[in-house]
Every structure is written in C-alpha cells, then in structure tokens.
Specification:
The chain is mainly α and about 80 residues long. Helices cover about 70% and strands about 0% of the residues.
Length: about 80
C-alpha cells in the first residue's frame, strides 16, 4: 500500500516537472534565461556547513530533495519531450 502511494506521488511529481519544463521552454528568451539562472543556482544544496548533509536530518533530506528537483527540472527544460 505504501509503495503504491509513493509511486502515485512520484508520477504526479514527474507530470508537474514535464509541464513546468514545457512552460519554461516557451518563455520569452530573457525570462527563460532568468529561470535557468534560478534553477542553476539552486540545484546544489547549500547549508554553509563544512560537510553538508554529514549529519542526516529531516530538514537536510528536504533540502537535498529540493535541490535535486531543481536539477531535474533544469535537465527537463534542456531536453525537449522528456
């Protein structure tokens, strides 16, 4: 049951990523450049620690997942029809 919920959530996330990537690709050039800079700046987790994520916490997991999603969205924008 839990596996089914996780798969459903992952499917929704992938659908949203595809939709956002499509919208991003159709922005005017200047807005698209701004969006790419925004995503590039956030695709690496920064917590200003010497070894980020060395001590796993729920907050760190959230930050890492967020950074990964920004990376995947940027990749999806650069790869049409993903």
């Amino acid at each position: 049951m839990q596996e089914t919920r996780c798969a459903a959530l992952e499917g929704r996330l992938v659908a949203h990523r595809k939709m956002l990537a499509l919208l991003g690709r159709h922005l005017p050039a200047e807005a698209q450049a701004d969006l790419r800079l925004f995503l590039e700046d956030r695709q690496l987790m920064r917590d200003h620690q010497e070894d980020p994520g060395a001590v796993p916490t729920p907050e760190m997991a959230l930050l890492a997942a967020e950074a990964d999603e920004f990376r995947l969205l940027l990749l999806a924008m650069e790869t049409p029809h993903r």
